[in-house]
Amino acid sequence: MHEYTRFFIGGDWVEPAGTGTIDVVSPHTEEVIGRVPEGTDADIDRAVAAARQAFDHGPWPRMTPAERAEVMGRLSAIYAANAQAMSDLVVAEVGTPALFSIFAQATIPQMTLQYYVDLAATYTWEDERPGMQGPVTVVREPVGVVAAIYPWNVPQFTLIMKLAPALLAGCTVVAKPSPETPLDAYLLAEWVKEAGFPDGVVNFVPAGREAGAHLVAHPGVDKVAFTGSTDAGRKIGEVCGRQLKRCTLELGGKSAAIILEDADLATTVEGFKLASLMNNGQACAAQTRILAPRSRYDEVAEALAAMVGGLAVGDPADFGTEIGPLVAKRQQERVEGYIRIGQEEGAKLLVGGLDRPYDRGWYVAPTVFGNVTNDMRIAREEIFGPVLSLIPYDDEDDAVRIANDSEFGLGGSVWTADVDHGIEVARRVRTGSCGVNLYGMDPNTPFGGYKNSGLGRELGPEGLEAYLEHKSIPRPA
Ligand code: NAD
After folding, report:
1. Ligand 1 midpoint to CA 365 (Å)
2. Same domain for 117 and 205?
3. DSSP string covering 136-185, please?
4. What is the CATH number of the domain that holds 142?
5. Measured from the CB, is residue 213 less than 6 Å from ligand 1?
């Protein structure tokens, strides 16, 4: 049992203002495995005040990027030395299979942190340009106090994508973890303290959406960095728009994997284990619409059903597990609801369905629907579970049209024997990323969404820009 009674605010562990608590429940055993205080508006106010004080009067924004990178480098080293402990915690909270967790829930977040540590030395922090009246110095300054609000599915990665560039820029941060995943945030807070950040630079308040909304609207916050659902993103964007507050929004997706005529089916379908079913299908960029040429439809349907039907479903802590439970009962019910909708819409159940693999734990059978048309709800709405829709297409133009016929534009992939041609097809897909023969994200390349998948980019130098204001200082020649 992981039990915490205080918040990390202003560089110290402080008593909560309220008496509410959040129980963290294991998706595998349904038992309570942790308890933390639930943040209230008053706790948010205190955290914003600490971050404000640290930004307006503390050393952090006034230090050089190299000095900040040194402190961040200490955090990165602690993280690297303890990545397994972080991974284990996220396995317990989220139900992520252990093998994927060490990679996505700990190692990649640490690599992302280290990427920004290293970027300090090569990034152009200021430059000199010839102006009409004389030289102009263009400087980059931190945007201010950042509210980092993030979801439960990849809590460390979605937080570090915000925290690392914000800190390097010189911002101070109030992080609000989801109620499902506060424990990994506590571990990170301990490491932040150990690394020796100045007081108030990083603050954590786990809380629900009401306190989250209070944080977004708080006049002491200069920028909101949000990852979560499109519905919540829209509300947050409205508030930020009214206040002209900077915001980046990383939202939902319904990404398409286009299998071209010449694709090697065995490696393609194997690739979907990660691209489509990572984190038990609870991934914003999961390739859940599988587009197959009509000429190879039967072959693809058979191979896909065999792969998904053969997945090892079970205890996420077991390194042999490929699919674990969903994060919460509510999520299990939501996904089962979509399986029902698929059946009612007339899609053909190829494998999986409503029979639960286990009585205990929030498991759903990995499921594939065939004969799906792109107007069905299972092809249009984000399910956020291990449910794939197989959609036949006539020719390449038709495949690109179907891929782009979505309110979302987050990820995508093209599977082919001809990589150059795959890149040509990927260029036609209107999404923030589109892989060829894989789907992945890298710390040094931008990630984000077109259309209803969001606004702005995280990762890479582009992700740092989102925490900087550019200021021009002209002077006479
Ligand atoms: P959610 O939108 O319900 O919650 C996300 C976070 O925002 C939580 O911390 C929640 O407490 C908070 N929140 C919710 N409403 C808020 C509001 N009005 N004001 C302030 N805070 C608010 O999403 P979820 O169910 O936790 O996560 C799943 C969603 O996240 C999916 O839609 C998924 O696609 C998306 N996601 C997107 C990305 C990406 O990078 N594009 C990555 C991971 C997850």
Report:
1. 24
2. yes
3. EEEEEEE--EEEEE--SSSHHHHHHHHHHHHHHHT-EEEEE--TT--HHH
4. 3.40.605.10
5. yes
Angle at the Cα of 151 (from 197 to 217), degrees rounded to 5? 75
Active site amino acids = 250
Question: What's the predicted TM-score (pTM) here?
Answer: 0.97
Q: For the chain, how many structural domains are there in total?
A: 2
Same domain, 340 and 416: yes
**pLDDT tens profile 374-428:** 999 999 999 999 999 999 999 999 999 999 999 999 999 999 999 999 999 999 9
User: Is 448 contained in some domain?
Assistant: no
Residues 317 and 206 in one domain: no
Find the domain containing 122 and state its range.
2-251+453-474
Element (H, E) at 292: strand 287-293
CB of 69 sitting under 6 A from ligand 1: no
pLDDT at 187: 98
138 and 170 fall within a common domain: yes
Q: Output the pLDDT for position 381.
A: 98
- With a 6 Å cutoff on the Cβ, whether 336 touches ligand 1 is no
326 backbone dihedrals φ, ψ, rounded to 5°? -80, 165
If asked whether residues 157 and 201 sit together in one domain, one would say yes
Q: Which atom of ligand 1 is nearest to the CA of 449?
A: 41
